[in-house]
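REVIEWER CHECKLIST
Item 1: Sequence provided? yes
Item 2: Single chain? yes
Item 3: Sequence as submitted:
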Amino acid sequence: MNISIPANPGVTPKCRHCGHDLTLKLISLGLSPVANDYVEPADYMKAEPFYPLEAFVCSECRLAQTRDLLLASDIFRADYAYFSSHSSSWLDHAKTYVDYMSARFGLGADSRHVEIASNDGYLLRYSIAKGIKCLGIEPCESVALAARKMGIETRTEFFGREYAQTLRSEGWAADLITANNVLAHVPDINDFVAGVRMLLGPNGVATLEVQHLLTLMQRHQFDTIYHEHFSYLSLIAGQRIFAKAGLRVFDVELLETHGGSIRFFVCHSEASQPESPRVAEVLAKERAYGLDQDDVYIAWNESVKETKRDLLELLVSLKRQSKTIVGYGAPAKAVTLLNYCGVGVDFVDFTVDRAASKQGRYLPGVRIPILPPEAIFEAKPDYVLILPWNIKQEIKTQMEEIRSWGGRFIVPVPKATIES
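Item 4: Structure as written out by the authors:
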């Protein structure tokens, strides 16, 4: 029987970088709520909005991206619940970064360090300790307030050309600009990168760290796709985006943070920074995998469906054995994973999180309650599903007591596995 399935309705989306029609679909994850819209108890019986969660790849510039559906101001509100300092491994990463950058680029008391999306001061605290003049730019008041309490000057603004010009006029031409895990969060990527160029001093360096599209695909990390992430970066796409703004990628590093990230080192196009051989090496890796071709994206769509089936088969098997399962963590990626896989309280009794701002609320969509970490030791479950799998070793250390009653861990991606 021949069945004709209609194409998705609506206007063909355009690439947010080059304006090309987006016809190559990376993945469709169904309908999903906004990832960080945690549900208050008073709103438990109220409906919440769900939006199509789809990602496309531009066949012209190779930027992977979601369809524009929500404004950044609707996502990153004053009460944003993600506080970077709650992860000890991320604090270690931030300290190592500051030590490395200050040594490599000779930063000192006469230097200016600006961080875009500075969150709760998790990183700039280490630059201030070195006597470097620092400024944080953070659009969410809740986390900016935490930074100010530590004495870190923090402006509550969205960053782009206009605000970069304001800062430049105030004398904030930067020797170092840091933008960790923010480039993926901006809908107008060209405006953001142009703002970086405008704020960067003549001999300054900017580093921008984002999840690497190559690793995301290799490790089936589909749950890192959510409405809050507008773009997914490769070096192939990144070089074109930075070049359009008058910036040059002179070095890259591949990191294990957030499950696999790429750190771009950029300077003004005419600056004298020599190009590292790592640029050519990473480009070669991306092309060898096929990021400059269509076929790899089409095949990945089917592999994600298999990852979903693996997780569901494992959870169904355990529940049929009357095993108890709880979650650890309430990250944004959990909202995509659980809603796409249809995993609610029928599988996971509750989840826990160290962030007090999330405790007592519910995960969007699936409405799984979020409790303090101590709840795991009270419930003594058979299994703990690690939702922020990118810090699974840190979580295993924090939760090592579960082994005393025979508890084990479940890691959902790249393939659902049980670990001790």
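Item 5: Key structural point noted by reviewer: Residues 84-295 form a domain with the Rossmann fold fold (CATH 3.40.50.150).
Item 6: Recommendation: ____
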